[in-house]
Amino acid sequence: YRHLPGAAEIRDVEAIDTQYDAIFVIECSDLERPGIKGLESEFTVNIDHHATSEHFGTINWIDSTASAVGEMIYNLCKAIGGRVTKEIAECVYMALVTDTGSFHFSNTTDRTLKVASELVKAGVKPAEISEAVYNNYPWSRIELMRQVLGTVKRDESGRVAWMRQTLEMREVANAVDGDNNGFVNIPLAAREILAVVYMRETGPEQYRVSLRSKGDINVAKIAEKFGGGGHRNAAGLRIEGNWDEKERELVEAVREAVEDATTIWAGDITVAPDLI
After folding, report:
1. Residues sharing a CB contact under 8 Å with residue 114, sequence separation 6 or more, in sequence order
2. In what helix (H) or strand (E) does residue 175 lie, and over which residues does it extend?
3. Out of 30, 52, 163, 248, which residue is the most buried by the measure of CB atoms under 10 Å away?
């Protein structure tokens, strides 16, 4: 995202050290997500599209039907009569592309595509955005991917996959935050796989977990049970404890969700379980 207009002006902070009239918290389902101390004591405007939002803001604007917060910001800009410059359009288009998986996730709607079309008219070049998003990683990403994919396992049904990323893997690959973007989606490329659990070690018995699924399998509900949140087909959480035990708990929860789903995916066709 460093190539985006205005990216150089963004600062990483650990705490609020100045009094503000209002602070906008965007794309965060809870106040722990930003990792900034002091937000809870400020006048906050919470703009989010996660159905699991905790509505922590002084003002909350939550639209779980939006494909991305970028879509919401675009509509807000238009509603107040703002001019959508090329710079604004590029940032919003990036939000749409990344949050919809290049428009192939189930959250892609006619509204999403209409906004994308208007952004292209405003000067966005889709090929350039895609190149920056998908073909702009360092070699460390490939090395980390090689190690992580070497841990992939499947359950007996062949429908659930899980994989691990240790701190040692990250060190060996000389990887940085963001190098593993999209890893969790790779097993979903197999038609048999309906859900994925991806655990990343962040400290002694501390892990970040990404959950992904297809069709009607709701991984957001699983994430909520473990203190996380997200969308139906894409969710996340943080967890602590023995790695093997927590992995078993998560995989079992996902396996049950797969079994409970009223429909499953078979290639590009959705069919009832009793028909296959």
Report:
1. none
2. none
3. 163
